[in-house]
Amino acid sequence: MEYCESNRNRTTVIVLMIIGFIFSIVSYYSAFGWHINFLDTDDHMRMVRIREFFTHFDLSNNVIARSNVPFGCSLHWTRFYDFFIIIPSYLLNFFTDSINNAIEYVCFCISPIVKCISIAILFKIVCRILKKYDANIVASIFLAHVALVNTYSFGRPDHHAFIILFELIFTDAVVRIVCNNFNRTKDYVLVSLISALCIWISPETLIPIAIVNALFFFLALGGIGDLQKLLLQNIMTALFVGIIILDSISKIEYDKISIVHFSLFTCASIFLGICVFVQNIQMSIFAKLSIIGLGLICVAAVFLATYPKFLRGMEADISDYVKLIWLSKISEMKPVFASNFGIDFAIYAIIILVAVSRKIYYLANRRFCRLSIVWSIFILNTIFYTIFAFFSVRMLPFSILFSLPLLVDLGMNSRNRRIIVTFFITIGVFFTSATVDSVKSVFAAPALTASLPSAKCERCACNIEANSAVVNGATSTLTVRELYKEIDNLSDTPVVIMASSNDGPKLLYYTKHSVLGAPYHRQQEGIISSYKVMQDAFSEKTVGKILLDTNASYIFIKKSAFAKRAISKAHASAEHASLANMIVHNTNIPPWITIVKLSEKFDNIIIAKINKEMLIERLKQ
User: What predicted TM-score, i.e. pTM, was given to this entire model?
Assistant: First the structure.
């Protein structure tokens, strides 16, 4: 039976959205209590960035001057997601005492709201290819999947959830083209607009866009679909991308929408134009394929010659040194088997392999129809995202998203009872194992003070603040604000504080001071400078020059980040210790460093004051 005509039920959608929101509340409360707590360095930087926008109201300026002083911080994030926070924050400001509070409230709640919208769209799509009961199961697994829970958590206004939302919107628009038999031009225009918006959010979305373009191209060559409409879609996508980047048409940025992506769709349009021309002239199939192949090679060669770093992806402009000292340590960028999720992923990959193989076998033995095309979209996205997940944990949520209909179809529609039983047992083992690991990552840390040493949560590709909110959220949330209030009061006027990269965003958000550094690769000088002071072997000449050049007045250190168990033996030894290590272990501290006394409850934090005059004299000697 073909389910391509949507049989969704609005009541079911509303119920699923409500359940999804309640599930997010319960998940957050079980870890952090009722108090507002933000989970990731990106979350604090997002709020800082939006506050800066309200202060200066400069749409074209993405530079945060207080971050990574004196270099400034220009993020690769675009404004598109920010608008979804800025607009409700502006409206909420009428009911709060300050715009800062309004921004904080909206940022705290935005991801669960995005989750509810995503559930509704996913249910709508899946209803076209599965029975309604099975679509309910897909949506239920989506809202409860342990690898997605933290993506949609309260207190995480990160763009990953937004990327998933727009990939679902894109998929829904593509499925509409298929279900309307490739006939309606306006469907192609809609897909082109959504494609441009997806790339505006993040160039990562090129993966499903490329998959759909390739699938539609080969279908058109086989007589299914319309090659001319596909050409129109790519021309319109290039046009929409061009409109978005009008103010920066000359910029070459691989990790942000730019002239690169306008050129990409322009080249795709040229190639498809060649194909349309060849399709309409009389010649042999072999001659047509030869011209098409030659055209593809020529267009691809011109594009790659113009943008030689394109195939290196979003890491194209990051130096190897920064990759070594910084990028390789970010949990979401690690290969999946280098993370805590390795064993779970192995189980999951086996399930996917069985589900994909079974579905391909089933489709190959049935009459080709619209339903087959929709299933092909899910199969191809699942395969590619699962392969990419081997190399980067951040790709795992997308693999899970597109695999869910395949997994449910395997478990619910197989005629072999042993397959059904095996499916549910395996899924049960997977969820149990993954849940145990997630709970450990959140709750394993002892009750800590509000100095908030961070614990890596590899599963959700973020750094979760493991703190005493696990035990008593009120104490932790209040105390963290007290800590940063003390730091804010170190000086009446803003000064520069040197810190490890991951601590920079919180210092920016909670205090008036400037920082060096922050974990954003567009300021590689800041990352390197922070590393040399905080983690690299101490050289008074090198460290002193960095501190003077950046006009740093204080150094912010978390003891837990520099405990002996957390550093290599080489860096623990006296001759290879960093400045931060020397201060933490109270050994060979330079005379131009003075320890600032903080309240006893902040015993995990050290604030060191820099005597610049003495440092200058030491360097002269």
Answer: 0.86
